[in-house]
Automatic annotation (TrEMBL):
<dbReference type="GO" id="GO:0015940">
    <property type="term" value="P:pantothenate biosynthetic process"/>
</dbReference>
<dbReference type="Pfam" id="PF08546">
    <property type="entry name" value="ApbA_C"/>
</dbReference>
<dbReference type="InterPro" id="IPR013332">
    <property type="entry name" value="KPR_N"/>
</dbReference>
<dbReference type="GO" id="GO:0005737">
    <property type="term" value="C:cytoplasm"/>
</dbReference>
<comment type="function">
    <text>Catalyzes the NADPH-dependent reduction of ketopantoate into pantoic acid.</text>
</comment>
<keyword id="KW-0521">NADP</keyword>
<dbReference type="Pfam" id="PF02558">
    <property type="entry name" value="ApbA"/>
</dbReference>
<protein>
    <recommendedName>
        <fullName>2-dehydropantoate 2-reductase</fullName>
        <ecNumber>1.1.1.169</ecNumber>
    </recommendedName>
</protein>
<feature type="domain" description="Ketopantoate reductase N-terminal">
    <location>
        <begin position="5"/>
        <end position="152"/>
    </location>
</feature>
<keyword id="KW-0566">Pantothenate biosynthesis</keyword>
<dbReference type="InterPro" id="IPR003710">
    <property type="entry name" value="ApbA"/>
</dbReference>
<dbReference type="InterPro" id="IPR008927">
    <property type="entry name" value="6-PGluconate_DH-like_C_sf"/>
</dbReference>
<dbReference type="InterPro" id="IPR036291">
    <property type="entry name" value="NAD(P)-bd_dom_sf"/>
</dbReference>
<dbReference type="GO" id="GO:0050661">
    <property type="term" value="F:NADP binding"/>
</dbReference>
<dbReference type="InterPro" id="IPR013328">
    <property type="entry name" value="6PGD_dom2"/>
</dbReference>
<keyword id="KW-0560">Oxidoreductase</keyword>
<feature type="domain" description="Ketopantoate reductase C-terminal">
    <location>
        <begin position="176"/>
        <end position="293"/>
    </location>
</feature>
Length: 305
């Protein structure tokens, strides 16, 4: 009998995982915030996955955070700023051998979650898949990608990666997950805030080559200082490649600001600046970028943390 996948965070990525796992015949349960959300979900009867224009319906059972059933496998698919609090609400339900998969972008939230549940194994993930919701309980699979998973303190891959293979979720066990997360964080720091401040698509940054280059120099210095030299290798080249390859896209931070959603700034640029300060590293361009971004968010009445 397969272990049930509990999914915490019925948003874009959580429902993208839930529907694919359920489609493969695996047991899945969605954890909703409260009784009102559960009732709304039950009225819909399940989740709809839209993939290449084709919609499929999945009647996945739902429950609230305070359901008494124990949890052995938990996919945490909340935003970085919600993950710690959401997991704390479930801590008492985790079995002694519980395993958590943390899908949050950036860094900082994963360690906070792991400290909250020291008895559980926390597996960190970094994903380049893309999904968005086009209605309540509907998810559109927008960008095929890859998910790397790893556990910096325990190199053995869990046996349940087979569930991901069976579900068609492209993935790889990574021995250097922190390097991957730092590299993605650096890419996001070099691109996303500038797209917000210059009000442009990623490709618009081709007009701001020097600004991008100066950020890459400082980000590389930071990565080297905090023990991640591999994440610093050819960073500027990679940033330029991503800007070219995604020139027509708006960055995720740009989209958050445009839709007046809270950004994950504290786990991206904020985390980079905080770690630099801890290492007494003076990075003037990165600090200025953070200050300008915070001002920009505050002027628009958006949270700046
Ligand atoms: P989302 O906002 O669509 O979904 C998060 C969900 O968590 C929401 O439904 C929210 O209501 C729920 N939630 C928050 N607190 C909760 C609580 N206490 N109890 C129950 N539910 C709670 O976010 P998303 O786009 O799926 O992103 C999740 C994470 O994955 C982020 O860190 C994001 O950066 C990362 N990510 C997203 C994508 C993507 O394409 N969407 C791609 C790669 C990485
Ligand atoms: O991941 C991204 C994002 O928009 O969050 C890219 C496309 C790499 C830009 O930083």
């Amino acid at each position: 009998m397969s272990t049930t996948w509990h999914i915490l965070g019925a948003g874009s990525l959580g429902t993208l995982w839930a529907t694919r796992l359920a489609r493969a015949g695996l047991p899945v349960r969605l954890i909703l915030r409260d009784q009102a959300r559960l009732q709304a979900y039950q009225a819909a009867g399940g989740l709809t996955l839209v993939e290449q224009g084709q919609a499929s319906f999945h009647a996945i059972p739902g429950e609230t955070l305070d359901n008494p059933e124990p949890i052995t496998r938990l996919l945490v698919a909340c935003k970085a700023y919600d993950a710690q609090q959401a997991v704390s609400q479930l801590a008492a339900r985790l079995t002694p051998d519980a395993e958590l998969v943390l899908l949050q972008n950036g860094l900082g939230s994963q360690d906070a979650v792991a400290a909250q549940v020291p008895q559980a194994r926390c597996i960190y993930a970094s994903s380049t898949e893309g999904a968005f919701r086009d209605g309540d309980w509907r998810v559109v699979f927008a960008g095929h990608g890859y998910t790397w998973l790893g556990d910096a303190s325990h190199p053995t891959a869990p046996f349940w990666l087979d569930d991901l293979s069976a579900s068609g979720i492209p993935h790889e066990w990574s021995a250097d997950i922190l390097t991957r997360l730092w590299r993605k964080l650096a890419l996001n720091c070099a691109i996303n805030p500038l797209t917000v401040l210059h009000d442009c698509r990623n490709g618009g940054l081709l007009q701001h080559h020097c600004e991008v280059a100066m950020l890459c120099v400082e980000l590389s210095e930071l990565l080297e200082r905090c023990g991640q030299p591999a994440a610093a290798e050819n960073l500027q080249q990679e940033v330029e490649r991503v800007i070219q390859a995604t020139a027509a896209n708006y960055s995720s931070m740009y989209q958050d600001v445009a839709s007046r959603r809270r950004t994950e700034i504290s786990y991206l640029l904020g985390h980079a600046c905080d770690v630099a300060a801890r290492h007494q590293l003076h990075l003037p361009n990165l600090s200025r970028l953070r200050r300008l971004l915070v001002e920009h968010l505050q002027q628009r009445g958006l949270p700046s943390d």
